[in-house]
User: What shape does this take?
Amino acid sequence: MAIESLPTFTKPARQRWESIPADIRQRLLSNVWCGHCRHETTITHFSATIKGGDLLLVGQCAECRSDVARVIKGS
Assistant: This one.
């Protein structure tokens, strides 16, 4: 049985992520576009950083394992 590792976040990214309500975080994770599958998917094995004031999640498509990303605009 494989155990998935916890996501890697920079400290500012963790603070931003934790400021988002849990139900919204789940929706954000399950609403990521995969260019390979050509449809919405869930991001897995992701890390997070702040880039240009936005929260950037980078990980893999849950279906095909291609690289995917999600940008969450800063306020």
The chain has one domain: 8-72. The chain has two helices and six strands.
